[in-house]
Structure formats: structure tokens, C-alpha cells
Amino acid sequence: MISVALTIAGSDSGGGAGIQADLKTFSALGTFGTSVLTAVTAQNTRGVTAVETLSPAIVAAQIDAVLGDFHVGAIKIGMVSSEVVIRAIAGRLRAYGRRAVVDPVMIATSGDRLIDEDALGALKEELLPLAEVLTPNLPEAALLLAEPVAETEAEMPEQGQRLRALGPRAVLMKGGHRQEAESVDWLLSDAGELRLAFPRVETINDHGTGCTLAAAITAELAKGHQLDEAVREARTYLQGALQSAKNWRLGGGRGPVHHFHTLWPAMAGERAS
């Protein structure tokens, strides 16, 4: 049986994040990808120049079209910056009795906040209780908790447990923002606390890493893996995608990871055209 995954997220015209990164990741991991667009962005490796949010009606209609036809094994939710769209998504997931991998895209790489107070409130109220696993980076975790950003590794699982109290079944605290030799993530679930550590990859090509990791978890869940196994496999996949693209020169800013690194090689130092 073919495994099917669904991504509910925004479009990235630069191809490194959002729907495009999710569908690449699904395919790279042997999962058929379906999609629901929440917004269209004009962006590239240098940044975002325009955003247009789709109506809650068309977002809900896309969800109905996919879940009403495909046997979707797992769902990922990415960029949802509008309160009405968030409530529409949550309403459709509840109608189908589904939960999701929720990647709370709320703060840009530049540090700019991407979500207003109404949308943040709706995300916490509507989507966090529907999260199979929540995957915040450290600034996003702090924003959800209205706390300072975790400065030590010991604070990461502590904040993760406080996030679990808001409704998610599990929380993956991502430590990529900490400048240590290792990049450490913590998975907090009913099974306990799992520490995942990987060597930090020194690269400017890290655009879309959060989208890619959450999509990889979704793909592995769609294939029937348990959460801890899905997270391990997804984190290993992301490590390879970062390592393979570290010498790319694709665009003039922060480039993407190499989603298909197991299928075709990236030439070291090569400038993509």
C-alpha cells in the first residue's frame, strides 16, 4: 500500500521551504504527497517580499478534497498566520477525527514575528490540542509560553513539558538556534524524554530546515513508524540534507537544504544554475 502524507502550509516561490520543501521531503522518503495551500508568498533565498493569505473557505475545501478521497496516513501543518484560517483548519481536522504534526511557523530567520496576537491565540486554543507532535524552535517555544528563550539545554525539556500542558501529545524542542558543537533536540512524550544530538553543520544553507524536519516526521508517521522512530529517522534525514548542501551556492542569501541527497549528489562548491 502506498503511504500518503498531507501538508497544510504556505507556498515558497523559492522552493526551499513551505509546501515545496514538504512535497520534496515526502517524495524523498518514499511517501506520496498531497497538499493544502494556506498562503502564497513571493520569496527567495534573501527573504519574503509579499504574502497573500487564502480564504478559509478554499483552505477548508482543499482539506475536504484530500481527506475525502485519499487514505492519508499523517498530516503536517506549517504556515498558518491567519486566525480565521487556523479555525477553519481545526474545524476540518476535528470533523475527520484527525491530529497533525504542527510546525508553528511564527518567527522569521530575521527575527521578525510572523503572527499577530489573535492568530497566536487561535493557534494555542485550536491547533495545539490537535497536535500529535509540536515542533517549535527555541524562539517559537518561548513565544507560545510567553517566556524568555531557553538559554541552556536543561531549560529545553522543561519548556517542552510546559508546552505539552497546552495540549499536544508530544513536543519536539529543536535546539538548532543554540550555538554549540552539537545540535540537540528533545522529544517529550508519554514514553518519556528522548535526547537527540547531531554534529552541528556549519552552513548558510539552512532555509526550510524546520519545514523539512516536520515533513520528514510526517512522512515516517505515514509509513507507520512510532513517533520516537519517526523523529530519529527524520532527524537523520535532515542531517544528510544539511551536510550535502553545505557548499551549495544557490541564490544570494540563505540557501535550501538538499532534499534529494540520497538520490543525486551535490557537487562540493558547485554553483547551481
From TrEMBL:
**InterPro entries associated with the record:** HMP/HMP-P_kinase_dom, PM/HMP-P_kinase-1, Ribokinase-like
Functional pathway: Cofactor biosynthesis; thiamine diphosphate biosynthesis
What residues does the Pyridoxamine kinase/Phosphomethylpyrimidine kinase domain cover?
A: 12-258
Q: Name one GO biological process term.
A: thiamine biosynthetic process
Q: Does the keyword ATP-binding apply?
A: yes
Query: Which GO molecular-function terms appear in the entry?
Result: ATP binding; hydroxymethylpyrimidine kinase activity; phosphomethylpyrimidine kinase activity
GO cellular component terms, semicolon-separated: cytosol
Determine the domain of life of the protein's source: Bacteria
The alphabetical list of record keywords is: ATP-binding, Kinase, Nucleotide-binding, Transferase
Reported EC number(s) for this entry are 2.7.1.49
Q: Which CDD domains match?
A: HMPP_kinase
Query: What is the designated name of this protein?
Result: hydroxymethylpyrimidine kinase
Q: Which organism is it from?
A: Aureimonas ureilytica
